[in-house]
Amino acid sequence: MWRDNQVTTRNRVPGWGKNCILGAATALVLIAGSSAIAQPVRLLVSSGNTDSVLRYNGATGAFSDAFVPTASGGLDFPEGLVFGPDGNLYVSSINTNSVLRYNGATGAFIDAFVPAAAGGLNLPRGLVFGPDGNLYVSGFGTSSILRYNGATGDFIDAFVPVNGGGLVGPAGLVFGPEGNLYVSSLNTSSVLRYNGATGAFIDAFVPAAAGGLFGPFGLVFGPDGHLYVSSLNTNSVLRYDGATGDFIDAFVPAAAGGLDAPFGLVFGPDGHLYVSSLNTNSVLRYNGATGDFIDAFVAGASGGLDVPTFLIFDNDGDFDGAGADDNCPFVSNTDQTDTDGDGAGDVCDNSAFDNDGDGTANGADGCPTDPNKTAPGQCGCGTPDTDTDGDSDGVADCNDNCPANANPGQEDTDGDGIGDACDDCCGGPGAPGMMMPLMLMGWKWGRRRSRRRGASRRCA
Question: 39: which DSSP letter?
Answer without folding.
Answer: P
